[in-house]
Input
Amino acid sequence: MREFFAYRIQDRSSAFSIILKARRLFQQFLVDAYTKIESERLNYIRFQQKHLRSETYSNLQNLKNEGKDDLSNTGIRVLLPSSFTGGSRYMQQNYLDAMAICKWFGYPDFFITVTCNPKWPEIKRYLRNTSIKPEDRPDILCRLFKIKLDSLTKDLKDKKVFGELSAAVYTVEFQKRGLPHAHICIFLKPESKILSVDHLDKFISAEIPDKREDPSLYALVTDFMIHGPCGNANPSCPCMVDSRCSKNYPKKFNPETTTDADGFPVYRRRDNGNTVIKSNVQLDNRSVVPYSPVLLKRYQAHINVEWCNQAGSIKYLFKYINKGADRASLVVSNRDGTENEQTTKDEIKAYYDCRYVSACEASWRIFANEVHFRFPPVMRLPFHLEGQQNVVFGAEDDIQEVLDKPSVSSSIFLKWFEMNRNDENARKLTYVEFPTKFCDNPNLRG
Output
């Protein structure tokens, strides 16, 4: 189904597509198409719930010894698995993978947020001979953002914008108005790490450039990197909470880059007289969002760059980029105020209900673009007691055939013990280091 809809929404010079010119109807078409795809995947998982079970190896062995061959009432049902993109287990596994990368390479050095710009020259050029607005072609926005995101990742790795890269993690999310944005954490090699704030100003700026010296950068900062106006100048700004800016803008003037008591960077914001006009309000360096001049000039979009140098924010950072999709929350209560109790937790229903899907997110998922990226790859290593490895089987499977499978009677954890007993080189490796020297083939286990 996904491939069919991906085929339908392609532009073709040899044919006229009425759906691609349908504007808001096209947006609705994309959302309906994606919800059909997602519903089909969820229904498949739900229907398989009747057949799939999971149980420990030792419990299955005990059943066989007791002469019980019927597996239909054995084990617990598999709920929404971690292989389902966007599910709670999927996001949790990605968070743990990010923490594993953090443990291997150390703390991340830069946190980058890049947002799609619907006014990119490529989009204007593509739509120049039509009356269609960029928001009416979310498929084009997503395809171009994917190209830009891949290019940004390549620049960080190959062109070493911030230094020699050892690892990178990013997650793609979608704003309420639909535009995609990515949260990127990058890890630098030890020789490229910034050890003090004295060297930070050449990578990150939080000031308005001089209009005469660099007019192009001045225009980009004015368009993309100015927060607000908010506060007394605009009390209705979305960032305002209890008559205060939730992002703590405007900041204070600061003659040089320092760190505060909690270890967070306080960027240089000099009172040099440089200002911009936004919504008929004059703003200065206190309203500038930190940015990289190199990346801003190259990609011409909102690209917020922050330096990460304190351990306390790492867990929050990874949980933030893996928090999952936006959704609405509500509680159904009785007239006396007591909540209705739900006897069993339906993870599929919990994922599906109150889910907010924009046309851009629908396009992104129809094109099968990844929502999570990590470099280098992470191998998930299982831990278990003897005979307690998890086994997934069907309700109609023969218990002897299940127990005889090589992938069931053994595991990576058990193979590590076996290699330590038989191979002298393996004894020099920890369990975490084991996959760097040895390859696991499930077909050769047992």
Notes: Residues 344 and 350 are 11 Å apart (CA to CA). Residues 405-444 form one domain. The longest strand covers residues 165-174.
